[in-house]
Design brief:
The complex is a heterodimer of chains A (167) and B (108).
Chain A lengths: L22 H19 L5 H4 L3 H23 L9 H21 L22 E3 L5 E3 H6 L11 E6 L5
Antiparallel strand pairs in A: 1-2
Helix pairs in contact in A: 1-3, 1-4, 3-4
Chain B lengths: L1 H5 L1 H6 L2 E7 L3 H11 L5 E3 L4 H5 L3 E2 L9 E2 L2 E6 L4 E5 L10 H9 L3
Parallel strand pairs in B: 1-2
Antiparallel strand pairs in B: 3-4, 5-6
The chains are: A mainly alpha (167), B alpha+beta (108).
Chain lengths: 167, 108
C-alpha cells in the first residue's frame, strides 16, 4: 500500500519558484491576538478558567510555538515559505501580547490593599445605611431583620459582597 | 456575582441573604441587575462610607482615579457578628459559590 506515496503531490510545499503561504505564522499570531479578548469576554466569567487562566495560557503557548515554527520555516526554507519580514514582526507582537497578559495576571490584578482593619471573624460588623436600586434606605440591621424572599423568617446571615463596580 | 445568582435558591434556602455593595449609583446597579439578571439586593455606596468602615477602600482604582471597593465577601450572622470573611489578594479571584454554601451550612 505504500507504493506511490512519494509521487503524491505535496500540497503544502509546492512550487519551488514561488514561496507558499506560511500558515503557522498567521495562525500563531491570531491565537496570541485572541487570547486576551477571549479571556476578558469568555474565560473570566467562569472560575475554572478565570482564577488560573490555563485556557488562555494554552492559547498563548500554542500561538508562540506556531509563531516560532513559522519564523523558522521562513528563514530555513525561504524558497518554500514566505514570512521573512512578517515573521519577526508577528513573533515580536505575539511575545508582547503574552508578556502583557502575564503582567496583568501575575502583577496587575494583585495590586490591591491589604485591608488589615477589615472586620475579622468573631468581631461585630459595623452597621451602615445605604440605598438600594429603588433608592430605598437599607441598613445592615434591616437586612438581618427582614424575612428572606419566599420565607416568613429572617435570614441566619447576610453575605456582603463588595465589588469594584462599573462606575 | 454570576455564581451567586446561579446558586441563589440554595443560598437562600440555607438562610443567607447575599447583598452586593459598590460605589455604583442606584441607576447603574439597576441597569446591571436588569442586564445580568441579578435578583438579590444591590446597594450603592458612592461616598464609600460603608466601604471605608469595613476598611475595603481601594484608593484611586476607579475610572478617573475614583476610590472604589476592593473585592471582598463578609458573612455576618443574625447577631451582627462576622462568621467568615474572604479578602482575596487578586481582583480576578472571587469566592466561589461552593465556599459560600459550605459556610452557610455551618450556620446555626
Amino acid at each position: 500500500m505504500a507504493c506511490g506515496m512519494g509521487n503524491l503531490p505535496d500540497i503544502g510545499e509546492k512550487r519551488m519558484n514561488e514561496p507558499g503561504r506560511n500558515w503557522p505564522l498567521w495562525a500563531g499570531f491570531l491565537l496570541c491576538l485572541l487570547a486576551v479578548p477571549s479571556y476578558l469576554l469568555v474565560f473570566a466569567k467562569y472560575p475554572v478558567t478565570r482564577d488560573l487562566p490555563w485556557a488562555t495560557f494554552l492559547m498563548l503557548a500554542t500561538g508562540l510555538v506556531l509563531l516560532a515554527s513559522g519564523v523558522r520555516r521562513a528563514y530555513r526554507r525561504p524558497g518554500e515559505y514566505r514570512g521573512k519580514i512578517a515573521g519577526p514582526i508577528l513573533g515580536t507582537l505575539g511575545i508582547a501580547l503574552t508578556a502583557f497578559f502575564c503582567f496583568g495576571v501575575f502583577y496587575g490584578s494583585k495590586l490591591i490593599p491589604k485591608s488589615g482593619a477589615a472586620p475579622r471573624i468573631g468581631q461585630r460588623a459595623p452597621d451602615f445605611t445605604l440605598v438600594d436600586t429603588a433608592n430605598r434606605e437599607v441598613s445592615l440591621a434591616s437586612l438581618l431583620a427582614e424575612p428572606l424572599p419566599n420565607s416568613q423568617t429572617p435570614p441566619k446571615a447576610v453575605l456582603l459582597i463588595f465589588y469594584r463596580g462599573y462606575w | 456575582m454570576r455564581g451567586i445568582q446561579e446558586s441563589l435558591n440554595e443560598i437562600e434556602r440555607l438562610g443567607v441573604r447575599p447583598v452586593a455593595i459598590s460605589v455604583d449609583s442606584p441607576q447603574e446597579s439597576r441597569a446591571l441587575c436588569k442586564k445580568a439578571g441579578y435578583t438579590f439586593p444591590f446597594l450603592s455606596d458612592p461616598n464609600t462610607d460603608a466601604i471605608r468602615e469595613y476598611d475595603l477602600l481601594h484608593r484611586g482604582a476607579g475610572v478617573d482615579g475614583h476610590d472604589i471597593a476592593r473585592p471582598a465577601e463578609v458573612l455576618i450572622d443574625a447577631s451582627g457578628v462576622v462568621r467568615w470573611a474572604n479578602l482575596t489578594d487578586d481582583i480576578r479571584v472571587r469566592a466561589r459559590p461552593q465556599q459560600i454554601l459550605e459556610q452557610a451550612r455551618l450556620l446555626k
